[in-house]
Amino acid sequence: MLDIIGINGLSDTEKGRYGVNSLAFNETTPTGSVVTGTLTGFNFMIGGLNAMGCDGTGNFFCFKAITPPAGPALAANSELKLTFDLTVKQPSDFAGYNPDLKIQWLGTLSKNGKSGYDLVSQTLTPTAVPLPAALPLLLGGIVGLGFMRRRKC
Question: Comparing C-alpha atoms, which of 54, 69, 58, 87 is closest to residue 19?
Fold first, then answer.
């Protein structure tokens, strides 16, 4: 999950953003390990991101909005939570992965008079999400019940 906070807030020097048109992450090593991905409201493709959106080139996987966002601008200090599902060839390909993210925002004219936004690039620090402590206990109990049922038959 990617959580973007502070949109159009005090630290946002551009303001007027009303949504994400495209976003891309660099490929893992080895390149090509990401087979497909899903993000609600976006199409998945392999390739990079330029000022026009996903361009199909480069070592990235990219998500492009099915319907580009339109105004009005998001409220000050808005937050976007984007949840991704990726299918990979080998889960071990994500070991040590430090994703670089690029985002193409859409919005009103910025305060400096530009007609659009520069691509935002940021290196992210992944957070490991541990399994809930009760899950191994639950699975162990299910296996135990299976053995007990098998002994009765």
Answer: 69
